[in-house]
Amino acid sequence: MNDPWQNEDKTWKFFLEELPEKVREDGKYQNARNYSNPQNAQLTFENKFSQELRRYIREHLQEYRQFTDNKTFENG
Fold first, then answer.
1. For residue 36, what is the DSSP state?
2. What number of other Cβ atoms are within 10 A of residue 32's Cβ?
3. N or C terminus of the chain with fewer C-beta within 10 Å?
């Protein structure tokens, strides 16, 4: 079965706007961008992006597990 992707707009907004903005606000990234070479700034951005993405997944995975483990949701 091929279900349509839920919340596609919200997902794209997160990846293309919210997550990069969170990284741009990071002090380490700002420092690398302002006082280092472009390669270092890019590497710092990529590392922070990955870190924030993992944090987001962990947070939402916990919510998902709480929802699916809660038996009161099974019967609506």
1. S
2. 21
3. N
Residue range 48-58, pLDDT digits in tens: 999 999 998 88
| Residue 42 half-sphere exposure toward CB, CA atoms < 13 A | 3
Which token pair is 30? Answer: 């700002």
Give the C-alpha separation, 51 to 12, whole Å. 18
Distances (CA, A) of 38 to 7, 35, 41, 46, 52: 34, 9, 5, 12, 21
Could you state, in order of their start, the residue ranges of all structural domains in the chain?
A: 27-70
Q: What is the pLDDT of residue 67?
A: 76
Buried b or exposed e, range 50-70, using 16+ CB within 10 angstroms: eebeeeeeeeeeeeeeeeeee
Read off the amino acid at residue 27.
G
For the stretch 12-26, pLDDT in tens is 898 899 999 999 999
